């Protein structure tokens, strides 16, 4: 078998077996509007922190919760060790805060403090682009 054939077979194998990871959101996040928005191109280097009311059965909403990856965080103090470990593995990591527009600003400030303690310096705030009517 020729080298190009082997490369082609391996390429198809990895395309078929690769699973794109999706996060199961357990909190509601409705973005705030912003006029100046910059898109991040390196999506692999982003770790998302979701903040919003917890989704309950029957479409109900609960108290404001923090979600990192697929896990709900019970205490804001848990953000620091989790993000510190992620930064040790990937120093160029960007933390993207996806905060519900109705969330309390105090919880966001607490998360920012924990990120500062974890030496997470690259922080992005996800928003929704607002087009002004002329």
SSE blueprint and pairings:
Layout (H helix, E strand, L loop, with lengths): L2 H15 L15 E2 L11 E10 L5 E8 L2 E3 L5 H11 L4 E6 L5 H13 L5 E3 L2 E2 L5
Helix pairs in contact: 2-3
Describe the structure.
With about 130 residues, the chain is α/β, with parallel strands linked by helices. Helices cover about 30% and strands about 25% of the residues. The strands form two sheets. Strands 4-3-2-5-6 form a five-stranded mixed beta sheet, with no helix packed on it. It has a two-stranded parallel ribbon with strand order 1-7. Helix 2 (about 80-90) packs across helix 3 (about 105-115).
Give, in order, the helices and strands.
HEEEEHEHEE
- How would a textbook summarize the main sheet? 5 strands, mixed
State the CATH topology: Nucleotidyltransferase, domain 5
Helix content: 25-40%
Termini distance? Answer: 63 Å
Stretches where pLDDT is under 50 for at least 5 consecutive residues are: none
- Given the structure, what is the number of helices? 3
Strand content: 25-35%
- Mean pLDDT across every amino acid position: 81
């Amino acid at each position: 078998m020729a080298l190009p054939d082997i490369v082609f077979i391996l390429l198809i194998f990895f395309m078929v077996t690769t699973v794109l990871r999706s996060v199961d959101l357990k909190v509601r996040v409705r973005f705030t509007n912003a006029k100046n928005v910059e898109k991040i191109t390196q999506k692999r280097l982003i770790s998302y922190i979701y903040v919003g009311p917890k989704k309950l059965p029957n479409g109900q909403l609960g108290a404001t919760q923090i979600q990192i990856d697929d896990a709900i965080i019970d205490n804001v103090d848990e953000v620091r060790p989790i993000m510190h470990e992620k930064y040790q593995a990937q120093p160029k990591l960007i933390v993207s805060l996806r905060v519900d527009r109705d969330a309390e600003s105090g919880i966001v400030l607490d998360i920012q403090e924990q990120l500062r303690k974890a030496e997470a310096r690259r922080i992005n705030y996800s928003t929704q682009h607002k087009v002004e009517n002329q």
